[in-house]
UniProtKB/TrEMBL annotation:
Belongs to the transglycosylase family. Rpf subfamily. This is Transglycosylase. The keyword GTP-binding does not apply. InterPro entries: LysM (IPR018392), LysM_dom_sf (IPR036779), Lysozyme-like_dom_sf (IPR023346), RPF (IPR010618). It comes from Streptomyces abyssalis. The keyword Signal applies.
Length: 210
């Protein structure tokens, strides 16, 4: 779980000089200057370990605790690190997008932003994660694409008017399944007549959940 970050975005610690005075003659003893750290990063495998600790590796985690996604971003941390360019909340973004955003937060706040940094082996000097946040690549085994409006703004295909849940912008099958305590594969199977592609659902579609 991410900490609030209050007090973590401080600049480099400024070295102070301690003056030791002896009689009339003064001798100044200078402490070593602290240099600003370089960019901080971590490998994908490290982020996987952090996610395993934070959310049991569920990159679409939304348990109602105010933290979202595999790395348990708070909405404020997600926004501060630029995650909203991918999705409104972390659990609605792909694994790659969450890692790319986490890299920025790590660079700003350091490993201490995550309660599971120690258990996940997250440090300030790891190799940068080689991820593609554009949407391609492995995203943890569940569908990640957000909902898309059709060109006419209507529900395409045979989305129909049946079902007890209306898809909203930003929803994924995984996020809907997680919020209702069901498996996304089971949800897809129950709604195959309305959802041909598990990676593509549309606002306004009616799905049968549960």
């Amino acid at each position: 779980m991410l900490f609030s970050g209050n007090g973590r975005n401080r600049g480099p610690v400024k070295a102070t000089r301690l003056a030791v005075l002896s009689g009339v003659v003064g001798a100044a003893v200078a402490l070593p200057m602290v240099t600003a750290p370089g960019a901080q990063a971590a490998s994908v495998s490290t982020w996987d370990k952090v996610a395993e600790c934070e959310s049991s590796g569920d990159w679409q985690a939304n348990t109602g605790n105010g933290h979202y996604g595999g790395l348990q971003f708070s909405n404020s941390s997600w926004e501060a690190a630029g995650g909203t360019k991918y999705a409104p909340r972390a659990d609605q973004a792909t694994k790659e997008q969450q890692i790319a955003t986490a890299e920025k937060l790590l660079d700003r706040q350091g490993p201490g932003a995550w309660a599971c940094a120690g258990e996940g082996g997250l440090t300030a000097d790891g190799a940068p994660a080689d991820v593609d946040p554009s949407g391609s690549g492995d995203s943890g085994g569940s569908p990640q694409h957000e909902t898309h409006d059709s060109d006419q703004g209507e529900t395409p295909g045979d989305g129909g008017g049946k079902g007890n849940y209306t898809v909203k912008a930003g929803d994924t099958l995984a996020s809907i399944a997680s919020s209702h305590g069901v498996d996304w594969k089971e949800l897809h199977e129950d709604n195959k007549s309305a959802v041909d592609d598990a990676d593509l659902i549309h606002p306004g579609q009616k799905l049968q959940v549960g």
